[in-house]
Design goal:
Layout: E1 3-7, E2 19-23, H1 27-31, H2 33-39, H3 43-62, H4 69-81
Antiparallel strand pairs: 1-2
Length: 82
């Protein structure tokens, strides 16, 4: 079942300028979260996700568990996609 978020300006009492936005999972955001954020012009969020993923990969490499970097990237992508 599809769910929607309804947004309308504060001064509009008729509801004619209401905007309906579908609330759904973004599959591309799971695989490429930074690219997906940039595509939607979320520059600051894309930079934050990029540096968070880079920092997590560096820390995991430093502690000797670089194989978990892929899992961390996947979980970050799931967070962005949801």
């Amino acid at each position: 079942m599809a769910t929607y978020v309804v947004m309308e300006p504060a001064g509009d009492r008729t509801g004619e300028s209401a905007l309906y936005v579908r609330d759904a999972l973004a599959p591309l955001a799971i695989l490429l979260p930074v690219v997906w954020l940039l595509w939607h012009r979320l520059w600051l969020e894309a930079a934050m996700v990029f540096f968070a993923m880079l920092g997590a990969a560096a820390v995991l490499d430093w502690i000797g568990m670089p194989q978990l970097a892929g899992l961390t990237a996947f979980l970050t992508g799931m967070y962005v996609a949801l």
